[in-house]
Amino acid sequence: MAAMSRYQTLALQTEKLISDGLLRAGDRLPSVRQACRIHDVSPVTVLQAYYLLEGRGLIEARPKSGYFVRARLGQALPEPEMTRPQGQSTALDVSDFIFEILESVKNPAVVPFGSSFASPELYPLDKLGRCLAAAARHLDPRATVTDLPPGNEELRRQIALRYLSRGANVSPQEIVVTSGAMEGLNLCLQAVTRPGDLVAIESPTFYANLQAIERLGLKVIEIPTHPREGISLAALEDALRQHPIKACLCMLNFSNPITGSLSDARKAELVALLARYQVPLIEDDVYAELYFGDQAPAHAKAEDRHGLVLHVSSFSKSLAPGYRIGWVAGGRFTQKIQRLKLTTSLATTVPVQIALAEYLKHGGYDNHLRRLRRTFSLQEIAMVGAVERHFPAGTRLARPSGGYFLWVELPPGVDTLALHRLALDQGISIAPGPIFSAKREYGHCLRLNYGHPWTPATEKAIAVLGQIIGSLLPHQGH
């Protein structure tokens, strides 16, 4: 697994202490000698870290006294307010627009702020590859039949154990293995809706969910969402009273793109609310393992007493990008999902299922997750600091508590579709806000990906973005 250099790691650890308020303006940092002893690094590493922090305006050198935390020149950027999507139900026409934007982020030479994927260097692909090779060598021919949906028995048992560790009692018999979370979401939508039905979604929402809903001939009603607290339960209840909603599709932990999370107590309220209206909840939970704090967030599935929560997740974000292994815990709809899986893609690749089951048993998954969370947490601090330094006054951003995305609201009048085109000319991709809305709203918002190693080139790319944004501000005549 590739990692940041030791001086970058030390710098980001120190930046986090400053960000968390443990180190305050005027506090003296450890001397070079003390820092060497504390962190078991060389003097050169400590000096490089301090130079980096000094360049970012976080610390300052005082002659014959050492390094001190600087008084911040400006306030931390405010967070965006609750979203207010316009209008009522919407028939979708977004796929061509989204594909056009996504095509632009495939170029490996482009800085991937617009990507939906973290760096593959952060995952144990070598160890997974060895597990896959062993699974292929020792494959029992009967597995080609026994591992048809619902999927490999040991893999489903391992997934059920992870549910149990998070307070959800899910039987392996309720789990259907899928070819990634997107297949799982498609199967869930097919299981609980018919063409023309109305689905409640967060606003903004992940563009691939919009595409799936469009493909199935469904309509959406967009529900206001807070960048920290998640979907508005009051607005959702109003919508349930007024409209014949047949399903609710939500990302309740570190939602993509706005990054908000429902508290565990409000997840329970959401499940109870939907149960009163007998509306199924499709819980898209692919980022739940990527929390930054000490406590893992709960699944809404843990509150399910009526079989109405269809919980969807995968290993693509947390362990095995490209392996396309996801699953659904389908509640009362499990049998229907299993049959839909059989009639659409038949089965998910058997050796890959076996390899992941073996890794989950013996591969050190939790150790990997701890490293991955720490890396994302440090890279989030680095990107937030860079945005605060380089983006213009009037910028707002939501500080995530997990995942690897940052939702940024730019000053009114900045067009992020124009920003997308101008940034690409400079070799930088972004994800403009309109791709996350059924009505192409959020024209002055963007999503940034911090799931790639932080480097001087990354910092420079944020600075370039800030310059382009400045050129688009209306008062400058653009």
UniProtKB/TrEMBL annotation:
Gene3D superfamilies in the cross-refs: Aspartate Aminotransferase, domain 1, Type I PLP-dependent aspartate aminotransferase-like (Major domain), Winged helix-like DNA-binding domain superfamily/Winged helix DNA-binding domain
Name of the featured protein: GntR family transcriptional regulator
Residues of the HTH gntR-type domain: 4-72
A Pfam family assignment: Aminotran_1_2
Taxonomic classification: Bacteria, Pseudomonadati, Pseudomonadota, Betaproteobacteria, Rhodocyclales
Record family assignment: In the C-terminal section; belongs to the class-I pyridoxal-phosphate-dependent aminotransferase family.
PROSITE patterns in UniProt: HTH_GNTR
Claim: Transcription is one of the keywords in the record: yes
Keywords from the named record: DNA-binding, Pyridoxal phosphate, Transcription, Transcription regulation
Keyword Transcription regulation: yes
Annotated organism of origin: Azospira oryzae
